[in-house]
Amino acid sequence: MSKTKITFPKDFWWGSAWSAEQAEGRGETGKAETIWERWYKEEPYRFYKGISSEVATDHIHRYKDDVQLMKQTGHNSFRVSISWARMFPNDGVGQVNPKAIEFYRDLFTEMNNNGIKVFANLYHFDMPAALQDLGGWESREVVDAYVNYADTCFKEFGDLVYNWFTFNEPLGPILGTYLEGFHYPNLIDFKRGAQATFFTVLAHARAIQAFKKYNYDSKIGTILNLSPTFPRSQNPADVKAAEIADLFYTRSFLDPMVKGVFPAKLVALLKEYDQMPVDFNQDDLAIIKDNTCQILGLNYYEPRRVKARLTAINPDGPFLPEWFFENYTMPGRRMNEYRGWEIYEKGIHDLCMDIKDNYGNIEAFISENGMGVADEERFMDENGQVIDDYRIEFIQDHLAYLWKAIQDGCNIKGYHLWTFIDCWSWINSYKNRYGLVSLDLKTQKRTIKKSGEFYKKLSEDNGFSYDVDKLI
Ligand code: BG6
């Protein structure tokens, strides 16, 4: 085995990401209730060990120290999300909150002063609860409120932000709310989900439209969770199942947000099954066509493996994408058992190649990738440092395939890990830890993990040594 130094392009973005609801804590600035706070009040038992987002990683009080930790772990860029509920504490609309503006301006200034580029995302699953009551993403009124929120952020923070993003993983709230029951208010209704999907895409396009009038140097795009889809076999039935799964989970947002049009095959399928959104018009479609991403963030965690259905569907059950395929458990696959996700590092290469070959090689970066592990105290040394060699290996194995994608011509500008300091993970709360920095939940003490030290060196060296002969 011989190792070669693999080097990334100059000015590569090394960093990580998290979101407002997962890290900030409520604080004292004033903030509308979010759907997560509402849901916790109603069903606290849905959250791992009954822990809410009330305090989270207390970033609202500790942001100055946290920026120093970013530096110490090699960040030259970092993605936050701005809290809509904090910006507009009166139910997500009305007067903007001066204390929220002050907080985000201070944070972004602190980051810039320390050489850390600000990647600012607008929506990361955290709908103000009162707007959910109006229908959430099924409501045009909510789209208007979002565009007002987005425009306010562009105006107030435009001088401090390097890259803007309209949404993080817009598919997540659709799956969680309308199909799989892991986001409040847990409806099972595909057709309503299709409407919410359409309005999410419209909100994205209208935010980009609003952004363009400022003529900032920064770019705007979105962040999508994309899993390359693999059929069990080349049997035509498996291939067809994979193609349909891919339409639902990959092309549904990627095509309209990057190319400005919804995939014709998906539209035809939804028409056939009477699942089309009800409220849309030609003007909406024109806005979507004219306002597409300038940059794309790719969240990659696991591949999607599917096969043709073995069993018939229940025609009386609700319509779901699974009517057309079943998930396939590939013998021999490697798993991150804590999260239940397959580890398949080559998928990062396949994903980037898809963007190169089918989406005009748009400027892109890995906006999330990472490994959540439970009970990491097990791996602490006598000084309280988590010795997470498994995470270092995970990062290196994925980066090697990312490097290969760049050699193969992909327009990849950076890599952001999920996450920086261990943060609150929605219904999983603090079960799985993803950070470069560990968090003692009782004291809020932060300690850099072994992976945090590795990440600093990686960023300084802009690469690392690796046995590239291993790559397939
Ligand atoms: C991404 C999200 O899906 O994955 C994050 O953008 C999330 O918000 C991360 O925390 C890890 O997933 P989970 O469910 O383990 O928190």
How would you describe this protein?
By secondary structure, the chain is of the alpha/beta class. It has one domain (4-470): TIM Barrel (Alpha-Beta Barrel). Helix content is 40%, strand content 16%. The chain has an eight-stranded parallel β-barrel with strand order 2-3-4-5-6-8-13-15, surrounded by five helices. A hairpin with a 6-residue loop joins strand 17 (437-439) and strand 18 (446-448). Helix 8 runs antiparallel to helix 9 (190-212) and helix 9 (190-212) packs across helix 12. The chain is globular and about 60 Å long. The two termini are 15 Å apart. The protein binds 6-O-phosphono-beta-D-glucopyranose. 6-O-phosphono-beta-D-glucopyranose is lined by residues 19, 22, 168-169, 172, 225, 299, 339, 368, 372, 418, 425-426, 428, 432.
